[in-house]
């Protein structure tokens, strides 16, 4: 089993979703599979829920989206590294690796 660096343990994935969304269901499964191998903080935001108007304006028609932030100490931003729509485990791991080396 791979051992994650302490820097990687501080990474965060924010998953932007809406319901119903079959692409979101598939993307969430991809992220959860990566979570079995890598340790990172995880947050899920339904862009259609009250209080998420900022993200609805950005991603209402683009879900699923993940943001990969190198640290859990900073709130996610639109400038985070991201993947949209269809992505696989290799792409998610690559973004996590890039965040860890940032």
TrEMBL record:
Keyword set, alphabetical order: Electron transport, Transport
Q: Does the keyword Membrane apply?
A: no
Spell out the InterPro entries in the cross-references. Answer: Glutaredoxin-like (IPR008554), Glutaredoxin-like_YDR286C (IPR052565), Thioredoxin-like_sf (IPR036249)
As for family, the record states: Belongs to the glutaredoxin family.
* Record protein name field: Glutaredoxin-like protein
Protein source organism = Pseudopithomyces chartarum
What lineage does UniProt assign to this protein's organism? Eukaryota, Fungi, Dikarya, Ascomycota, Pezizomycotina
